Amino acid sequence: MFHKTIIVVFLENCLPKAEVICTLGRMTETGFGIDIGGSGIKGARVNLKTGEFIDERIKIATPKPATPEAVAEVVAEIISQAEWEGPVGITLPSVVRGQIALSAANIDKSWIGTDVHELFDRHLNGREITVLNDADAAGIAEATFGNPAAREGAVILLTLGTGIGSAFLVDGQLFPNTELGHMIVDGEEAEHLAAASVKENEDLSWKKWAKHLNKVLSEYEKLFSPSVFIIGGGISRKHEKWLPLMELDTDIVPAELRNRAGIVGAAMAVNQHLTP
Ligand code: BGC
Known about the structure:
The protein is α/β, with parallel strands linked by helices. It folds into 2 domains: 7-136 and 263-271, ATPase, nucleotide binding domain (Nucleotidyltransferase, domain 5); 149-260, ATPase, nucleotide binding domain (Nucleotidyltransferase, domain 5), CATH 3.30.420. Helices cover 36% and strands 23% of the residues. It has helices spanning 2-12, 19-26, 68-82, 116-123, 134-145, 190-194, 196-201, 206-224, 239-242, 261-271, and strands spanning 30-36, 40-47, 58-61, 88-92, 96-97, 100-101, 129-133, 154-160, 164-170, 173-175, 184-185, 188-189, 228-232, 251-254. The strands form 4 sheets. A 5-stranded mixed beta sheet has the order 3-2-1-4-7. A 5-stranded mixed beta sheet has the order 10-9-8-13-14. The model is unreliable at 1-27 (pLDDT under 50). The structure holds beta-D-glucopyranose. Beta-D-glucopyranose (BGC) binds at residues 93-94, 103, 105-106, 133-135, 159, 161, 163, 165, 179, 181, 191. Belongs to the ROK (NagC/XylR) family. Its EC number is 2.7.1.63. Keywords: Transferase. It comes from Corynebacterium glutamicum (strain ATCC 13032 / DSM 20300 / JCM 1318 / BCRC 11384 / CCUG 27702 / LMG 3730 / NBRC 12168 / NCIMB 10025 / NRRL B-2784 / 534). One of its GO terms (molecular function) is polyphosphate-glucose phosphotransferase activity.
């Protein structure tokens, strides 16, 4: 808190010749986010006022096996390539509570029980770090910079990719680690029915896949009565193929931030000192 106050004062007194002070002031407007996924680890500097990337995103293939140590080395490489020295927000496709990874549905099982703060702190030389669930990061980014529907009422944002990630938002505030992708629907985990990867792996038509998604969303609708569903992930780009096939009472809208959401949300989380 003390640190934050000083920076605000510096910003307000940012005189043309006070180069160092101005640079310090700007630090709060620029953040850095890293999104750890199954196939790629991506990072970028983020303008925290606009939610835009400041320069090109850096992407390195996820190592195999994607153990915590191997992934942390790639994260350190991205930070070094970007020549970034400030705080870093990092997403994981895992439940993260008290900075401990507690699940690993689509990542190496050795993440379970890993103290992710200790891990990244060691690889990133003691800077400020926040690690959070990837869908939660997408949720907070969308609520600030994306579809205005994400800011109002009880919102469920879902990311449809290899798995299904979920973020619960109430008037833009996050309830973390909801993991709706693992809810059992018709005897199967929701993400095994309706993730985007299921459409691809089983070569399902849009009609067939939309039927699965409809079944999953109907269950969520019954249990949580959200004001809106916001759908993110690559498949949201093709919403005209499946949105008209949905038969729910609840509105469904595509996310606007697309593949920027994880990185932007991670950068926001560390800037706001969120530690789920
Ligand atoms: C994981 C979630 C993650 C989602 C999307 C699920 O399998 O359990 O933590 O948010 O995939 O990556």
